[in-house]
């Protein structure tokens, strides 16, 4: 593909514009025609019925009824109706598994609840379907037509599976199930001859009347057959690389159906379609998020409360947990709240309390706000209030933050009055002066401090870069996943480790702490600035906790003196005092990395 402004670029704009118009006003009638064309393009014949449901949960209930409802037909009295039912409800699985353009896997992965996606049609070998971020047309499509958050969120993808297996709200499940069976009775009639309908409708009513079955193996078949929404950007890129959307066929049908279609099931003669959510809310990072209600809500009331992309109990958002709850409730109690809401088959029931509770506490504090939390908990005051000379009318107060919140001790500076009234800044656990602590990462500075002179020297010297390579540290580098500092300060990746980890500078202050993040969810603070971090890296551990020895050659080249044993131990204490304030968060899942004080080492 070529750059925007060329013929290909204009085609991309046209395709994106058509897509945006279709999403703004989804057409179910056209989507049904597109589903029929998709069936025909795959040689299946047209579906005899399309059943529309209001949520993935309703769709799963309807699909399960169709997969097993024939058991309510007596094979001796209704052999033809039963045989027709089985044929109409057999899942169409051809070509359903695997990644775009990838090989067909030999079997369905046991832990994957969503069977899959259609394949993007093969394109000319000269135009491989990939995310070449240097291609302006790829950037244009991804910028305008990303996958919606509800379609890619792990929380949404798994919640309807969990709710079906073990409803957190049995009353809601019953109401959704009743509505799903009403839709089946209304919409399935075209799929069966009139002579069979009385028996089929009686069987459907029997399915609706039976207690909700708990057989996970049967639900498993429902998950194997469900199809996730298509990857919108890839469809548009495929169309652009083919020179436009063909008048008929697989690609044309899929581009027309997906604006109106969420999770769906392609059965032999019946398509079961769950509509997209009626309401979706996201934060500035595009993650599911809402501060006063569900982030995702379907037309039948099935909903998810999310904070920063993470699924949370509804009460954490509305009305919000109290400060006392956050500080005093045990891990087991907080986990129990999540299990009661989400059900015994949920992620909350499967994970240990000490894995779930910290993220729930952090999100509950975010919901309250740190200033309110500090007042209501209350947090112990360390120092202040003292006036802030840079913000007339503002007073700064330094408080202790219990380790239960961030997994490490920390402190927080809260501003009262002035331009940033109510703002709060996480600071190291050994901070003593509110005014000094408030600016430790450059918060409030008119502009960032210059980059460390030592880093500039490294960038300009191949010799120093070679010495860094001896420490298994290479320039430049990009971390394996998007991360950010929980405190909100900027984070700059400047080098990488041979094991896949990344070195970061934190903040915009005159001393930028150095943080190392490994590739498996752990992080470590290496120093209050780059020089201190490098002195630590070239020094020997006097207590033998790390395998490295002093690197005198590197120390001399950088003009640094290795730390003495006493300095090394003091450095460790200082680094760990910063760990809570520099908590590292995985952006997509909004979960905090684990602090591992020995995750960095030299190979």
Helix content: 40-55%
The proportion of strand residues reads 5-15%
Low-confidence stretches: 1-5, 95-127
Largest sheet: 6 strands, mixed
Structural class, from helix and strand content? alpha+beta
Strand order of the largest sheet: 14-16-17-18-19-22
Shape label: elongated
> What number of domains?
4
Arithmetic mean pLDDT: 81
What is the end-to-end distance?
43 Å
The strand count comes to 22
What does this structure look like?
With 603 residues, the chain is of the alpha+beta class. It folds into four domains: 7-276, no CATH class; 296-367, no CATH class; 371-438, no CATH class; 453-595, no CATH class. 41% of the residues lie in helices and 14% in strands. The strands form six sheets. Strands 14-16-17-18-19-22 form a six-stranded mixed beta sheet. Strands 1-4-3-2 form a four-stranded mixed beta sheet. Strands 10-11-12-13 form a four-stranded antiparallel beta sheet. β16 and β17 form a beta hairpin. α21 (453-460) packs across α22 (462-470). The chain is elongated and about 90 Å long. The two termini are 43 Å apart. Residues 1-5 and 95-127 have low confidence and may be disordered.
Describe the secondary structure blueprint for this structure.
Layout: H1 7-24, H2 28-41, E1 49-53, H3 56-68, H4 79-88, H5 136-144, H6 149-152, H7 154-165, H8 170-187, H9 194-209, H10 216-225, E2 226-227, H11 232-241, H12 250-257, E3 264-266, E4 270-274, E5 279-280, E6 296-297, E7 303-304, E8 306-307, E9 310-311, H13 314-320, H14 323-328, H15 331-342, H16 347-350, H17 353-368, H18 370-376, E10 381-387, E11 395-401, H19 403-406, E12 410-416, E13 424-427, H20 434-438, H21 453-460, H22 462-470, E14 473-474, E15 483-485, E16 491-497, E17 502-506, E18 514-517, E19 522-527, H23 530-537, H24 552-558, H25 565-579, E20 584-586, E21 591-592, E22 594-595
Parallel strand pairs: 1-4, 19-22
Antiparallel strand pairs: 2-3, 3-4, 5-6, 6-7, 8-9, 10-11, 11-12, 12-13, 14-16, 15-20, 16-17, 17-18, 18-19, 20-21
Helix pairs in contact: 1-5, 1-11, 2-12, 3-7, 3-8, 3-10, 4-9, 8-9, 11-12, 15-17, 21-22, 22-24
């Amino acid at each position: 593909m070529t750059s925007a402004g060329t013929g290909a670029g204009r085609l991309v704009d046209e395709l994106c514009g058509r897509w945006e118009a279709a999403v703004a006003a989804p057409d179910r009638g056209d989507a049904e025609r597109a589903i029929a064309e998709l069936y025909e393009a795959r040689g299946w014949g047209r579906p005899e019925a399309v059943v529309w449901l209001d949520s993935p949960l309703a769709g799963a209930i309807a699909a399960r009824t169709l997969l097993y409802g024939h058991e309510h037909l007596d094979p001796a009295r209704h052999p033809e109706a039963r045989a027709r039912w089985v044929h109409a409800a057999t899942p169409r699985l051809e070509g359903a598994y695997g990644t775009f353009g990838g090989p067909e896997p030999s079997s369905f992965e046991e832990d994957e609840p969503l069977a899959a996606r259609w394949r993007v049609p093969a394109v000319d070998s000269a135009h491989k379907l990939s995310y070449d971020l240097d291609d302006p047309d790829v950037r244009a499509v991804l910028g305008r037509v990303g996958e919606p958050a509800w379609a890619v969120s792990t929380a949404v993808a798994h919640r309807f599976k969990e709710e079906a297996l073990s409803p957190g709200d049995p009353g809601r499940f019953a109401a959704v199930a009743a509505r799903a069976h009403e839709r089946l009775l209304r919409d399935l009639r075209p799929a069966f001859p009139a002579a069979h309908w009385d028996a089929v409708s009686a069987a459907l009513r029997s399915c609706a009347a039976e207690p909700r079955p708990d057989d996970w193996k049967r639900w498993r078949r429902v998950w194997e057959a469900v199809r996730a929404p298509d990857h919108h950007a890839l469809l548009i890129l495929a169309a652009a690389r083919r020179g436009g959307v063909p008048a008929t066929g697989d690609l044309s049908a899929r581009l027309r159906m997906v604006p109106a279609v969420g999770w769906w099931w392609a059965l032999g003669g019946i398509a079961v379609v769950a509509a997209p959510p009626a309401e979706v809310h996201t934060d500035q990072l595009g993650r599911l998020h809402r501060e006063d209600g569900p982030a995702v809500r379907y037309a039948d009331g099935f909903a998810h409360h999310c904070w920063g992309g993470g699924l949370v109990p509804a009460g954490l958002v509305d009305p919000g947990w109290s400060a006392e709850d956050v500080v005093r409730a045990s891990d087991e109690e907080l986990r129990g709240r999540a299990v009661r809401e989400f059900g015994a088959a949920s992620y909350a029931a499967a994970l240990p309390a000490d894995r779930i509770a910290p993220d729930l506490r952090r999100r509950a504090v975010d919901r309250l706000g740190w200033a309110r939390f500090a007042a209501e908990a209350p947090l112990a005051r360390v120092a202040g209030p003292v006036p802030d000379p840079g913000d007339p009318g503002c007073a700064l107060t330094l408080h202790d933050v219990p380790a239960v919140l961030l997994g490490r001790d920390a402190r927080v500076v809260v501003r009262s009055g002035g331009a940033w009234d109510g703002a709060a800044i996480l600071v190291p656990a050994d901070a003593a002066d509110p005014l000094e602590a408030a600016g430790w990462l450059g918060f409030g500075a008119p502009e960032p401090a210059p980059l460390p002179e030592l880093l500039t020297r490294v960038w300009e010297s191949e010799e120093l870069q070679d010495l860094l390579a001896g420490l298994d540290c290479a320039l430049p580098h990009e971390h394996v996943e998007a991360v950010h500092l929980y405190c909100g300060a900027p984070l700059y990746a400047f080098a990488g480790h041979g094991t896949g980890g990344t070195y970061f500078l934190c903040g915009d202050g005159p001393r930028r702490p150095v943080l190392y993040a490994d590739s498996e969810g752990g992080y470590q603070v290496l120093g209050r600035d780059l020089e201190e971090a490098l002195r630590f890296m070239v020094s020997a551990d006097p207590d033998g906790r790390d395998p490295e020895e002093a690197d005198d050659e590197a120390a001399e080249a950088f003009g640094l003196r290795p730390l003495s044993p006493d300095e090394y131990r003091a450095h460790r204490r200082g680094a760990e005092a910063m760990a809570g304030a520099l908590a590292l968060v995985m952006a997509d899942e909004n979960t905090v990395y684990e602090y591992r004080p020995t995750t960095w080492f030299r190979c």
